[in-house]
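Deliverable D5.2: sample structural annotation.
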Amino acid sequence: MSKNGFRSYGGISAAGGAVGSDDPPSQGRVAPAFKSIRYRSRIQDIIPCCVNQLLTSTVIDNVFTIRGIEVSQVSIVGIIRQAEMAANYVLYKIDDMTTKPIKVRQWVGRDRAKQGITLLPVGVYAKVLGILKCSAEVKSLEVLKIRVLEDMNEFTTHILETVNAHMMLDKAASGQSVPVVPSEMDEAQRHSEYHPDFIRKEVLRLIHECPRQEGKSVRELQTELSNLSIGTINQAVEYLTVEGHIYPTVDGEHFKSAD
């Protein structure tokens, strides 16, 4: 849990700001689907939102604001309405039924694009962690992490987190005191073996020790960490991915260590 009491939506102003372009990565820049400097973005700066909030956000000089609060890195949960493969990215349309679907781009490397990748299926619920973008007055998300929901309780949790996060952000912006909200992983158990830091270290260790080229799968992590729920493991994987410690390989379920 961050010092200011927020969880994944810890920062009122997301670090770095958003770049208003849908252009592909420039030469020498690694696509976000792989090990990249973009993963160094702090996870506590990710703010849970609904799609309507993103599409109605105000953008001035590539800085996005929602009700006066600066946002850049966000999370959404919705149904995949469309999935298409382009030359070097995958285009998804995510619909959370608060407004029209939002376009979500997942950049892939050229080698991976040639080999072919597996698209997430249309009609399933997915969670997206991404960076808000705007090009030609059309807002979209650039993917940091996307995965299919394992449990519909995650959808309910996201709705509650969205309401709670924006209430706290509004209070913080108006100068009111902000209550401390414990994280889900903190609440799992207070014992050291269930502490978020311990879980992340165990997940990272298992991924680092895997010698296979495609890396370690989430299913294998669940088998080896059988005392943890799939939701807790996914949270650890998301944290390690955004922090740059691990990166996806053949699909969104296999990961290798960045070290």
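Annotation notes: The first strand starts at residue 47 and ends at 48. Residues 1-44, 180-193 have pLDDT under 50 and may be disordered.
The annotation will be released with the project's public dataset once the embargo ends.
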